[in-house]
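Because showing beats explaining, we let one protein speak, sequence and C-alpha cells together, and leave readers to judge.
___
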Amino acid sequence: MSAASPAAMSSLPPVRVAALGVGVALLVLGLKFVAYRLTGSVALYSDALESIINVVASGAALLALWVAARPADASHPYGHTKAEYLSAVVEGVLIVLAALSILRVAVPELSHPRVVDAPWLGLGINLGASIINLIWASVLLRFGKASRSPALTADGKHVMSDVVTSVGVLIGVVLARFTGWHVLDPLLALLVAVNILWSGWGLLSSSVGGLMDAGVDPDTDTQLRRVISEEAIGALEIHDLRTRHSGQLTFVEFHLVVPSEMTVRDAHTICDRLEDAIQRVIGGAHVTIHVEPQDQAKHSGVLVI
C-alpha cells in the first residue's frame, strides 16, 4: 500500500476511501489481537482494544460521508455536510470509552504484573500491524486535506495516534522483557490510556467547533480580506464579512457597498469577479454577496484599494 499523490486522491470519492478504511481497520484489529494472545501483554491488549475503536470509528466515518454526499433537499437546503462532524464527535466519545476500558484492566495489574510470554512473534505481528496503520494514516491525512473532509482527517489523526501508541508499547514491552521489570507492561497500558484520552479530547473540541459554525482560520481570513480588497475595484467597501465551515464546504458572505448611481449590471460584474477570486483562496466556497448603496457604508471592514 503506497500513499498516492494529493491530485490523484482528490479524484476519488471520499466514501470509497472510508470503505477501504474499514477493511484496513479490521485487518489491523485481527493482527493486534493475535499479538496479544501470543504474549499475554496487557499493554498489547490495550493497543488491540484501541483498534476496536478504529473499526467502529471507520464505520462511523463511512456512514457520515455517505450521508454528507447526499444532495441538498427541501428539508436540508444547505446540504448534509455537517454529518461529518457528528462522525468525529462519535469517534471522540468512543476513544474516551476505550481509555476507560484500558484503565479498568491495567490498574489491577500494577500490583500483580504478569510475565510476558513468547513475545517475539507477537511483537513482530504487532509491528507489522503498526506499519500498515502508519501507511494508511498518511493516506487518510493527505486525502482529508486534499478533499477538505473533517471525517477523514479526524480518522487519519486517530490512526496516527494509534501508531505512536503502538511504537511506545513495543519499546516498553521489549524493555520489560530484557530488564525483568514486568510492571512496565501495565504502566505502559496506563500511558496508552492517557494518550487516547488526549486524542479523544482533541477530536471532540475540533468537531464541536465545526458544529458551532466556526469560521475559517486567521491566515485564510487574512487572504480573503486581501483578495476582496484587490478585486472589488469599482466598489467602495465590504463589511460584515462572515465565514463558516460545514464539512467539506465553506460558506462566505458579506455586504458590498457600491456607488448609488452604479447599475445593477456593473454591480453584478463586481460580484462575479469577487466570487472567482474567493474560489481561488477557498476552492468550492459558497459565496453570498448582499449589494448596498453608498449611504449604507459603515466605513469599516474591508476598504477597497
Q: What stands out?
A: Residues 39 and 120 are 8 Å apart (CA to CA). The chain has nine helices and four strands. Confidence is low (pLDDT under 50) at residues 1-7. The chain has two domains: 6-211, 218-303.
